[in-house]
Automatic annotation (TrEMBL):
PANTHER family: UDP-GLUCOSE 6-DEHYDROGENASE TUAD. It comes from the Bacteria. One of its GO terms (molecular function) is oxidoreductase activity. Keywords: NAD, Oxidoreductase. Transmembrane segments: none annotated. InterPro entries: 6-PGluconate_DH-like_C_sf (IPR008927), NAD(P)-bd_dom_sf (IPR036291), UDP-Glc/GDP-Man (IPR017476), UDP-Glc/GDP-Man_DH_C (IPR014027), UDP-Glc/GDP-Man_DH_C_sf (IPR036220), UDP-Glc/GDP-Man_DH_dimer (IPR014026), UDP-Glc/GDP-Man_DH_N (IPR001732), UDPglc_DH_bac (IPR028357). Its EC number is 1.1.1.22. It holds the Pfam family UDPG_MGDP_dh. Residues 326-428 form the UDP-glucose/GDP-mannose dehydrogenase C-terminal domain. NCBIfam families: NDP-sugDHase. Pathway: Nucleotide-sugar biosynthesis; UDP-alpha-D-glucuronate biosynthesis; UDP-alpha-D-glucuronate from UDP-alpha-D-glucose: step 1/1. It catalyses: UDP-alpha-D-glucose + 2 NAD(+) + H2O = UDP-alpha-D-glucuronate + 2 NADH + 3 H(+). This is UDP-glucose 6-dehydrogenase.
Length: 447
């Protein structure tokens, strides 16, 4: 099939590359000229394990192309994916200006003689498929007066569930694909497109557009609930002298609860959970429904992102002025360079506000961080360099390479044998043995 993907960020680039991988001819569009130039030069623009190999292969085979021109990309396209940003607006609702802006452009460009399926892959509020449909028709009425555009396209909601860090696997072998449309022609096109991805038997779940749109928010909000619930259990553990690891294992072995997403830490971040929980809460607000759990989740997460700060302050008698910290981990989670809403940034801001200085290391997210913090913090070339002369080591992201470090190197570089671990990467018993003062989440303080 011939496919256009509009928006070539994390989702668009993975989507475009993976569809090319199954033999489709894909053209990805972006307004960011630098991004398109790089991609055309064979340079990948995001860090995502496994993506580069597929990107290079499909580009070489001529199945994966990049352009700034929406008009060029959609010529003869059978499917047009919208993988555009939907950031929170001032009121917390998803801002649809990118989506509706492109819908307006499509109204000018669609060819009434070519049937095309337009797919919302972005996370969008309930009712957006209708809005996109109406925006295209309204624009076509002005710019292509007299032509019957309305019958040449359907708008489908096909939310994306990939996780950054394992996005290629998630896309190539999805647990399920949710497809929101009741239009028979669109059902056939989407079924043909996705069949190669569900050969192992996972379902293509067809439903109406609104249910598909709500499914994405429900999934992300539920996962955020799970994380925040465990973070509150961890708070209880710290106060009661219980061990959250034991509680986690104890409840996770129940199939109804499951083992995943039960790890406490310094809160969730990223470009999805924070904005999607907020957007769902706003949708509830708009229909006068008081979605109480979501408000609690947002409050818990706001508190959790700064959970280590009072512990650090307490250790240093409430005075961090002149203290110097090593911070391992900047990305909002491991295996990505994505720093959007990263809990590490909330910690950096709080520590700088207290008059501390910070040296940071992350395997992939340093460049993105330099563009945010400039010379306000120090950037280390490796995890050990960050430790030099620091009063304590702080951990904000659970990269695998942090899990079994050389503790001798750590203790010889640090001023004190002192670690505050926001992701529970070390074993408290080992820290005890090594003589560290070690504070983590929901486990007893080792000193
Ligand atoms: P992103 O910011 O990485 O990428 C969006 C891209 O769209 C950018 O490259 C931007 O330059 C481009 N763009 C903006 N306006 C454009 C226009 N008019 N024409 C062409 N390109 C344009 O965002 P993302 O992380 O890929 O997220 C996209 C959507 O997918 C969001 O709704 C997000 O909530 C959703 N989503 C993201 C993830 C994830 O893990 N990142 C997972 C599932 C769903």
């Amino acid at each position: 099939m011939k496919i256009a993907v509009i928006g070539t960020g994390y989702v668009g680039l993975v989507t475009g590359t993976c569809f090319a991988e199954t033999g489709n001819v894909v053209t990805c569009v972006d307004v960011d000229q630098q991004k398109i130039n790089k991609l055309n030069a064979g340079e990948i623009t995001i860090y995502e394990p496994g993506l580069e190999k597929l990107f290079l292969r499909n580009q070489k085979e001529g199945r994966l192309k990049f352009t700034q021109s929406l008009a060029d990309a959609i010529v003869d396209a059978q499917i047009i994916f919208l993988a555009l940003p939907t950031p929170p607006g001032a009121d917390g609702a998803a801002d649809l200006k990118y989506i509706l802006g492109v819908a307006n452009d499509l109204g000018k460009l669609l060819n009434p003689n070519n049937y095309v399926v337009i797919v919302d892959k972005s996370t969008v509020p309930v009712g957006t498929a209708d809005k996109v449909h109406n925006a295209i028709v309204a624009s076509a009425t002005i710019h292509q007066a007299g032509k019957n555009i309305e019958h040449c396209f359907d708008v489908v909601s096909n939310p994306e569930f990939l996780r950054e860090g394992v996005a290629v696997d998630d896309f190539m072998k999805p647990d399920r694909v949710v497809i929101g449309t009741t239009a028979p022609k669109a059902i056939k096109v989407m079924n043909d497109l996705y069949t190669p991805f569900v050969r192992q038997g996972n379902p293509l779940i067809f439903m109406d557009e609104k249910s598909a749109e709500l499914t994405k928010y429900a999934a992300n909000a539920f996962l955020a609930v799970k994380i925040s619930f465990m973070n509150e259990i961890a708070q209880m553990c710290e106060r009661l002298g219980a061990d959250v690891d034991m509680v986690r294992k104890g409840i996770g072995s129940d199939d109804r609860i499951g083992k995943r997403f039960l790890f406490p830490g310094i809160g969730y971040g990223g470009s999805c959970f924070p904005k999607d929980v907020q957007a769902l809460a706003k949708t509830a607000d708009d229909i006068n429904y008081d979605f109480k759990i979501l408000d609690a989740v947002m409050d818990v997460n706001a508190m959790q992102k700064l959970h280590l700060i009072p512990k650090i302050k307490k250790y240093f008698n409430n005075n961090l002025k002149g203290k110097h910290f090593a911070l391992w981990g900047l990305a909002f989670k491991p295996n990505t360079d994505d720093v959007r809403e990263a809990p590490a940034y909330y910690m950096i801001d709080a520590l700088l506000a207290e008059g501390a200085t910070i040296a940071v290391f992350d395997p992939e997210a340093i460049n993105n961080t330099i563009s945010v913090y400039g010379n306000k913090i120090v950037y280390a070339n490796n995890q050990y360099e960050a430790l030099f002369n620091a009063d304590a080591l702080l951990i904000a992201t659970e990269w695998n390479e942090f899990r079994t470090p050389d503790f001798e190197k750590i203790s010889s570089a640090l001023k004190n044998k002192l670690i505050f671990d926001g992701r529970n990467v070390f074993d408290p018993a080992q820290m005890q043995e090594l003589g560290y003062h070690y504070e983590s989440i929901g486990r007893k303080i080792i000193s």
